[in-house]
Hints:
Helices cover about 55% and strands about 10% of the residues. It is of the alpha+beta class. The chain has two domains: about 110 residues, Glutaredoxin; about 100 residues, Glutathione S-transferase Yfyf (Class Pi), Chain A, domain 2 (Up-down Bundle), CATH 1.20.1050.
Amino acid sequence: MIDLHYWPTPNGHKVTLFLEETGLEYRLFPVNIGKGEQFDPDFLKIAPNNRMPAIVDHAPAGGGDPISLFESGAILLYLAEKSGRFIAGDPVGRAETLQWLFWQMGGLGPMAGQNHHFRNYAPEKLPYAITRYVNETNRLYGVLNRRLADRGFVAGEEYSIADMAIYPWIVPHEAQGQSLEDFPHVKRWFDTIAARPATTRAYELGKKVNPTPGIRSEEERKILFGQTAAATEERKAG
Length: 238
């Protein structure tokens, strides 16, 4: 049994995509990041970066004590190795998968995240910041489009954890100022993944957990965007 501490954000969706594809047994523990539940002391024991998703695997391969992990990329890699699925077994295929997993973690996710913030959430619209991150997101879409020009999925012809990591960050493309019509290979890939039954189940689950996504109050804005070391300690203590 796997405990999944989750909120339906792009990083949260990565893990439900994997779990729904494999059928691994899991229990869902919502972490409402708008209410500050990511600062709960019990949650911080498994996710010291006060971010979700995080998991606790109560039946790790080989037995032993439960294993807890935070960071969505690390979770995907762990689950792929545990199940023997969605990562190639040969060295070349494994390397292809990992480099695109880390491309998402180090590039697409951070850049698209800043894009979302400055376009949609920042109280002051800063043209330089908006242009900077919209353009960089566009560049990364172009990288992905070229990669997909001659293969079905990012690591080859098989769906992998690299696709699961990237897809949720492409779902909100309109909010990022991007059109999939400009990236035909990305669009074909995107539509293929969207049609998978496990993808439908994962996103329906997200809607049940948080039927009204978005930032709806100034308090939520402070919780999500006002985090400093001192503020984190105050919330942890409070």
